[in-house]
Amino acid sequence: MLRFQNGYSQTINVMIERYDASCQPTPWHRTGWWVIQPGGSAVAYGGDLAALNRYWYWYAFAVDNTQWSGPYPENVPYSEFDWCPDTAADPSINIGMRELDVNGASNWTLNLVL
Question: Comparing C-alpha atoms, which of 70, 61, 66 is closest to residue 100?
Answer without folding.
Answer: 70
